[in-house]
Structure formats: C-alpha cells, structure tokens
Amino acid sequence: MITLEIATRIANGVLAEGARRGFAPLCAVVLDAGGHILCLVRDERASIHRPQIAMAKASGCIGLGVGGRTLAGMAKERPTFIGALSDIFPNGCVAAPGGVLIRDAGGKLLGAVGVTGDQSDNDEACAKAAIERAGLIADTGD
Amino acid sequence: MITLEIATRIANGVLAEGARRGFAPLCAVVLDAGGHILCLVRDERASIHRPQIAMAKASGCIGLGVGGRTLAGMAKERPTFIGALSDIFPNGCVAAPGGVLIRDAGGKLLGAVGVTGDQSDNDEACAKAAIERAGLIADTGD
Amino acid sequence: MITLEIATRIANGVLAEGARRGFAPLCAVVLDAGGHILCLVRDERASIHRPQIAMAKASGCIGLGVGGRTLAGMAKERPTFIGALSDIFPNGCVAAPGGVLIRDAGGKLLGAVGVTGDQSDNDEACAKAAIERAGLIADTGD
Amino acid sequence: MITLEIATRIANGVLAEGARRGFAPLCAVVLDAGGHILCLVRDERASIHRPQIAMAKASGCIGLGVGGRTLAGMAKERPTFIGALSDIFPNGCVAAPGGVLIRDAGGKLLGAVGVTGDQSDNDEACAKAAIERAGLIADTGD
C-alpha cells in the first residue's frame, strides 16, 4: 500500500526531475491501487486542465491494468476501443506515455502515476525516475 | 426470460472456463433482455474498471441487437458511428468480441453477456462456452 | 482483501436470507476496498434499477467511510450535505440502511455491501447476516 | 497569485495541524483563483471519496465567492438554491465549514482551500491555521 508520504515524494520527485531536465511545467498525480488520489500537484505555470489529463493517464492505466505505453499502442491499433474506454472510465482514459503503474519488487500493483505538461516521452521519463527514486518499480508498459 | 439462477450459472461458467484454459483473470456480466444486470462477477485479480468494459460490451450488443463480432466489424468500417454509440448508450459501447447475445432455440433474444480480461477472442470463447453449457444459444455476431 | 469467492458467498447469502425471511426480491452488490464491484446479483423479479440503488448504498458508505445507518442520520440532520454527496460521488450516494461496511476482526475496512429491494431495515438485516456468516464484521453505522 | 510552493505548504500544513490536534485523517485541496487544483493531498487512511468532497467545498466557495460558513448558512435558509448549485457547479458544491477562501492582505481573492475528514468545524480550523501560517488571510465566511 502506498502512503501519502510516499505518494508525495513521488509527485514532488516528478516535478523536480522535470525542472532538472528543463522540461515544460508539469502536473503529476499519484493514485492508490483503487484509483483514488493520494497526491496531485500542478506547477502554477502549467495549463488549467492538466489535472484532468494527469488523472486520465493514471486512471486509464490502473483501470485496464497496463502501462501508458501499452495503452498508446492499443490506441493506434484499435482507436475505437480506446475511445470507448475514454467514455466509460469514470476519469476518462488518455492513452499515452506518462501513465505509469507503480509495482513493488514482487510485481504487485500498488497504484499509478499520471504526468502531463511536456511531450509524453518526457512526462514518462519523470514518472519513471521519481518512482524508482522511491524504491519502487515503474511499469511504463514498455 | 433469464432467471438469476441461469445468469449466475453463465457468469460463473465464464470465469471457470477462463481458469480452465489458463486465461487472464476475467470479469463477466449477464444482462436481461431490457439490458439490466442480473449478475456481474469480477475476479479480484482483474483490473478495477473491467466491470465498465464488460457492461459496455454487453450493453452495446443488446442496444443495437447484434453480437460483438458484428459491432467490431462496424467499428472498422464506420468508426464514427460506433464512436457515437459509445457516447449515447447509457453504459457506452465497446465494439469487440466478448459481447455475446443470448438467444433461445427459437432465436428469441433473452439477454447478453459481456466478458473482458484476456484477449477479445478468448473472452468470447468463454462467453460462448458458458452460454451453451446453460443450454442456450450464443450469438457472437459471427 | 476480499476475494470474489467471499464476495459471491456474501451476495448470494443476502438473497438467500431474504428468501428465508419472505422478503421482497433483492439486489445485492459487494465492493472491494477501492469501491469496485466484485459481485452483483439481482433477483430477476426485482425492479430494473435496483443495481444502481445497491451501488449507491455501498458506494456512499465506502466513499465516506461510514455505515448506511450513519449516512441516514446525517441525511436527516444535514439533507443538503448528503444531497451534495449524491451529486459528486461517482456512483451517487443513497443514504439508508442496507449500505454496510465489511471489516475484519481488527476493524480494517475490506469493502462494502449494498442491498435493496425490501424496506431498508430488512435490506440491512440480510447484509448483516450474510457478512457475519462469512466470518467478517458488519459495520452498519448503528 | 498562489504558487505551487505556497499551495503545497498550505495543503501539508492542513494535515499537519490535523495530526497535531488528533483529528481524523484529512484530505485537503488548494485551488487557484480560477478554481483549478494546485495541490491535493489525501491521508491514505481517509476514505476514498474525500477528494471529491474537498473539491466540492473549495469549488463551491470560489464559485460563489464566499466562505464555506456563509454557504452553510445559505443551505439552511435556501436549501433548494444550494442544491441547484451542487448540480450546476462542475465539481459540485458542499456547503459546509472547511471551504475557505484565500485572500491577500488587501482582500484580493487568490484561491480557496477545501478540507474534509473530521467534523466541519475541525476541518475549517485546520484550513485557517495553515492559510495564516503561510502569511495569507483565511476567509471562512464567518
């Protein structure tokens, strides 16, 4: 189970990583295994609906049980399917890198991170770095 | 008319079939002819939004009166049409195998099954097996 | 964590208890700790939107972390507050007995049950009996 | 304008104040003047839909331009009006103490805080303490 303390460390770690790399201002959310928010942070310079995008990246991953890169591949092959998930998942489904599952060393699903603000690959790199710095496994769907 | 007893037998039969074949953890729903849930079961290892997907597979089928394989074909030829159904059907519309109509020997529509968790073809195989084991006709839209 | 096996035993137990007591046809849902369906059963003679009511009873309880009887008390004292929860909780909030939290012997929250079909007190009695028969603690909010 | 740094200090300050006073586990959100999330934190022991409640407290305040205590008074006198706001505000409207406007020394509106988890008066006390500790003015609607 992810505590708020760990979630905060991950969310802040995402934004710190983005700043270090000179990325655009980011928004990051950390969800628990049930898909509920533990911590959400948005750089005040990031656009106003970034929280919705971060939520839909993380929620899409945890809702289907796969990383954002897998979702992005499915969106290319089966756009109607992913479009339908976007309609029926309670927080939508943004199928793109930057949605990353959090697992423990044994592979157990603990939660998910959603990052948005820069290019998807960059969003994902920040999520991955922050999850690993917290001693957990980042499942990007790679 | 499908009773809860039959619906339960079908839903449980879907998951048992999946376990027998070594498929990923499944979620299955059985709807009556009015499109309303009689029985929904989700393996505790299946991801959290599987109930929404199972519902949208079964609801899409019963909403348009065709099996999921027919819906999947329509989604390829007319993606905008199926995308619109996804918006206007109250439980969405996932156009994929695994949505299966239940008919009696005379062809009368009794309800629908929605299965998700593994690949769509595998989901459908479990639905078909469980419906037939209950002595009813599985209309996959094949 | 509640498995599907336990959830099924509880959901079926609710309807069996209702039949034993001669109650009206019931609908019962069992949610996991994240508020997601494990098992939902509706007697084919129960009205069509009972699943929504069962969900809103169980979801309201788990969303706020209290039993349905507590919610019902709040609804009397603070109707606007409970009305607002009904708008913002993803599955609504029906504040009535029949929404019951499932806890383990140590008090840890494992999930929730929602029952509807007869009078709320009767719905609750069936939920309580089925949870206890499964060796778990029923927190009705009493 | 409230930066993420200040928002984080306030949100964390709310939870720290709650812990100091021995309150139930809390959830706190800080919105900017446009009503968009800067920071949301939920104690992992707080119930799962607390983020929705925190949002609806803060959004209600900023949406109408008054503190939560004023909203609570209006809810008593004009329940239908507040019920309607709950329907039409995009994040709902929970009219209760714990929704607090953030102002600067000149009275300019900078954002809002929403806190939930304990009794409303306690939620509000934590919001007030954290806003003031950040050198800003807490407008509770008192």
Summarize this structure briefly.
4 copies of one chain form a homotetramer. The first copy, chain A, is of the alpha+beta class and about 140 residues long. The first copy, chain A, has helices spanning about 5-20, 50-65, 70-75, 80-90, 120-135; strands at about 25-30, 35-40, 100-105, 110-115, 135-140.
Low-confidence stretches of chain A: none
On the 0 to 100 scale, the average pLDDT of chain A is: 98
What general form of chain A does the structure show?
A: globular
- Helix count, DSSP H or I runs of 4 or more residues of chain A: 5
Q: Note the beta-strand portion of chain A.
A: 15-25%
SSE order of chain A in H/E notation? Answer: HEEHHHEEHE
Please list the strands of the largest sheet of chain A in the order they lie side by side.
Answer: 2-1-4-3-5
The CATH topology assignment of chain A is Beta-Lactamase
Quaternary assembly: homotetramer
CATH class of chain A: Alpha Beta
